[in-house]
Amino acid sequence: MSSQKKRTLKIDAFKHKVEADPKFFDKSWKKLEDAIREIYNHNASGLSFEELYRTAYNLVLHKHGPKLYEKLTENLKGHLKEMCRSIEDAQGSLFLEELQRRWADHNKALQMIRDILMYMDRTFITSSKKTPVFDLGLELWRDFVVHAPKIYGRLVDTLLELIHRERMGEVINRGLMRSTTKMLLDLGSSVYQDDFEKHFLEVSASFYSGESQQFIECCDCGEYLKKSERRLAEELERVSQYMDAKTADKITSVVDKEMLSKHMQRLIHMENSGLVNMFVDDKHEDLSRMYNLFKRVPDGHSTIRSVMASHVKESGKALVSDPEKIKDPIEFVQRLLNEKDKYDEIISVSFSNDKTFQNALNSSFENFINLNNRSPEFISLFVDDKLRKGVKGANEEDVETVLDKVMMLFRYLQEKDVFEKYYKQHLAKRLLSGKTTSDEAERSMLVKLKTECGYQFTSKLEGMFNDLKTSHDTVQSFYANLSGDTDGPTVSVQILTTGSWPTQPCTPCKLPPEIVDISEKFRAFYLGTHNGRRLTWQTNMGNADIKATFGGRRHELNVSTYQMCVLMLFNSADGLTYGDIEQATAIPHADLKRCLQSLACVKGKNVLRKEPMSKDISDNDTFYYNDKFTSKLVKVKIGTVVAQKETEPEKLETRQRVEEDRKPQIEAAIVRIMKSRRVLDHNSIITEVTKQLQSRFLPNPVVIKKRIESLIEREFLERDKVDRKMYRYLA
Amino acid sequence: MCTPVKGRGRVRLNVGGRMFETTAATLASAGRDTMLGAMLDAAWNNSDCTVAADEEEYFIDRDPDCFAVLLDLLRTGSLHVPPHVTDRFLCREALYYGLLDAVRAARWGPLDGDRLCLAASVPGTATGDGTAVRAAPDGGLCVAHGGAVRVYNWVLEERRPVNLHHAPVNDAAYLDESTLLLAARDRPGGGGGVAAFSALTGDLTHRYRVSHDRQVRPFTPGALAFDPHRGNIFASCKGRFNEYGIGVWDSTAGEQVGFLYEPPGCALGDADKLQWIDGTGTLMAATMFPRTDSSFISLLDFRDKNGVAWSWSDVGTPASSMEDKHVLHAVAMDDGQSLCVINQYDDLGFLDIRSSGNASGGVRWRSRSKLAAATRKKQKRNAPPQRAHGEEETCYPKLAAHGGQLFASTGDAISVFSGPDYVLTSTLRGSDGAGAICDFSIGGDRLFALHDEVNVVDVWETPPAPVI
């Protein structure tokens, strides 16, 4: 920048002085040398800065820069060697203190020496690209003090020893540690790294490798994690107290590796205290500790996740396949819900709501719930149960939350159409028997299903609600029309649209003449107002209130339509055989048996007497009007013996119906796909169909193949003539 | 009315026998790393009690006249030099006190194209034409003349000239104020290539070699560029065996770190202008008329395998739309979004480098203002007579961008364009009869214009702000 003037000035200077005094350099240097000694001896007060500066200036001006630099280097070396000796002589714990004291002295001296030689720094050193005076002093300190053979090893050992003692719980002089590491940093980050950090990390690795071995032998998983966590925090604190901030990541990665990575598998699978046990015992604190610690380890979270997934699958599988536990569907679903709640809580409390964990949990639930093909039925039964007695103990909000949770389970179902089937049945039963307690809860469940599966899924269910409403209106207007003629029984008719309801075709039974009379009037009224409709009586689904007298005691009996037909027979006879009843009512065999059973064999509700007395109904039994019937209640509800859960044959039947219903859906999907694609190979069709339908159920490839064949037969599709695996759409 | 307070913070100086009295704060404002700052530092004054220190006077064995100037500089921040104090004298004293940087900073202000004044002219001594002028970061300069480069410090005193076996110099560049890089033509006997010199002493410090297949090969470097952040040096290279491309070296290690061979259809080895564009991390390489018939500009990304990140060429542009316009010079603008080019009619044009070269619609030409055209004619009229019969020497226009302003040399003047639309705001016309400007360079807050005729270099700087 400016050394150029120096050169031109030199010419002037030469003329008067330099040649005149051959000892010019030696004299000047002597002055500077003495000053430097005084500075090192803390005796600088007598020195004149101006004089020294001028002396150094003149030396540089007269081209003695190289020589001055050389002399300075030598001189500094001499001083440093002296310091080195006094540091070496320091005993024990005084060693570090002496080193620090000398380092402070040296720093201060360097500052002053640099002041004196500032002119050299600016001119000679810039143009000759040498190390500036201050940096030179640091370099020499590094080479002649820190790297001195008797100091180097001792320094590193002392530092590491102190750290070890601190790790073992002793209190050490952190200030001294801090100033020592700062000295190494001042000498350059490579000095700090090579001379201290490298050794520190090595020693730490072996320390933690030993300690973790010891811990893992004697601690359980939770305790081990607690200790690791504490160690990590300690190391971070240590770095913040007396090391370079860049060391933090390095030392924690050492601890991570030694204490966590290396023992991860063993910790997670530790007997009696590993991850699975934490799940079982709901150890939220331990779990969150594990989550946070293994975040630091490669594959840590994925390992936790896979262990969690397999544990959930495992225990879920046990739950859904245990024949004891699936006896009670309500209990079964409640268990599922409890399981779900448990893991939801773990994820939200301990796993900081990690999305990947949620996904793993969902797929595990999906996996095991579908292992049991009765899950859809059970879930529907559970909803049925909640909606029947929902409002009884619980307020609406509770029902709502339960329903929301059930929807979670519903989402896991692959065979949503099966659920729909059952739900329809259960809903029909609830609606027809008037047992739904809360219309609102029903509706809200419908809305949930609708948002989950779309309009199509619930349209029929909604139809059912509408039917009931219109029926109510129709019956009212019927009675308004019938005014005056109020003798005889009243009927309440529910007109069910065919297709919306899960009705089975049944041969209507013979109704008692009073009922026939009024129902024919209704038929006439209904068909009169609605053109072109057909009305069939579903006698298997209704119920009736009848008044009866037993030895003077009046009771009101709530019975099913079938039971009513049977009881009405006893208006004209006291005793009837099974055969008589069957003939008179034409009730199907199985239904009749069930209804007689509930009339004659249930204790406290035995309005009929059976001979011979037994639990089961046989074709030769005779039934009598039981005038000894007593009850504390005026109103007696006589339930039909119904199997809530489906029996085996019923189950098969439902399954069959479901399969039957799926056929057109699969076909429709195939046609939709082929219509847009025109030509497609077999495997792609299977994938696309599966994709389209998976919101409702998981179609079986074999079934799809059959449907394709059926469509080919009906000439919707044809096989490609060349490639038999390709199908073509025929418009 | 002031209450006389004894001593407090006051310093008495005896400089060469004259007494000065000032405050410690004034002297400390020079900085701890100056002679005056160190002298007052506690490390040198911890001897006795502070009262005594107030009584004390410092003796400095220097010239009082010059000290007065420098003390005034410390007090006011501005430089007032009485006529009897020469530049050399002032600088020598300033160097003694460590105040040279302060003196330089006070001499001229930050470069503003619209406030430039002709501060000095450096007479040319070399025979032959100057090829290039380059500004040093500290305000010094160098001029390449044929086989040598003349170096001047910022006081415009000449230093030792630099040469590389006197091979013709194609380009020069400052790596820092004390290191000068030279690109010299390869000759059969050897001697050309790229080399670094100490600008202070003129000594050769390093030669940058090019190896192909691990064999050092001679080459002719064309243009030079420097990326100060990564410390990379770039040169367009023509090897003897048709190894054309851009060589890359690490300036600290001095080793070749890459060589981008010129892909087909790209002219790189011939490039006559390289410029490192910091914002985009790319190198602009421009090969232009008259070196080649058609101009080719590309942006090179050395982090990319492909190398060429953007390119533009006037090859294949319909002749009618071109009107025979040749792009003669190019410069990347400070914003890192566009390039500016100039043609032989002194028309400015812009290229958008954010969208791909020829797809962006090519050069948006802007017709110049009448003023500039008039300048050109006037210059022709005023051209010295010897020029009329002489060799047909043309000085092609050059461009530079600095601080949001655009500078273009046309004829014997430099036009300054400012604002977002680059409107003409100033015209700089320097030494009379010095002839056309063949190159100019901006650096260290100075503008140097090299005139063709007598090789004189005009130095333009922004004067310090007026006092009132």
Automatic annotation (TrEMBL), chain A:
GO MF, one example: ubiquitin protein ligase binding
Pfam families xref list: Cullin, Cullin_AB, Cullin_Nedd8
Every Cullin family profile domain range: 374-600
InterPro entries named in the record: Cullin (IPR045093), Cullin-like_AB (IPR059120), Cullin_homology (IPR016158), Cullin_homology_sf (IPR036317), Cullin_N (IPR001373), Cullin_neddylation_domain (IPR019559), Cullin_repeat-like_dom_sf (IPR016159), WH-like_DNA-bd_sf (IPR036388)
Keywords from the named record: Isopeptide bond, Ubl conjugation, Ubl conjugation pathway
Highest taxon of source: Eukaryota
Similarity comment text for this entry: Belongs to the cullin family.
Family annotation (PANTHER family): CULLIN
Protein name: Cullin family profile domain-containing protein
Origin species: Leersia perrieri
Taxonomic lineage of the native organism: Eukaryota, Viridiplantae, Streptophyta, Embryophyta, Tracheophyta
TrEMBL record, chain B:
InterPro entries listed in its UniProt record: Beta_prop_At2g24240 (IPR057441), BTB/POZ_dom (IPR000210), SKP1/BTB/POZ_sf (IPR011333), T1-type_BTB (IPR003131), WD40/YVTN_repeat-like_dom_sf (IPR015943)
Pfam families: Beta_prop_At2g24240, BTB_2
GO biological process, one term: protein homooligomerization
Region (Disordered): 374-393
Involved pathway(s): Protein modification; protein ubiquitination
Domain (BTB): residue spans on this chain: 9-115
Gene3D superfamilies documented for this protein: Potassium Channel Kv1.1, Chain A (3.30.710.10), YVTN repeat-like/Quinoprotein amine dehydrogenase (2.130.10.10)
Domain of life assignment: Eukaryota
Protein name: BTB domain-containing protein
Native source organism of the sequence: Leersia perrieri
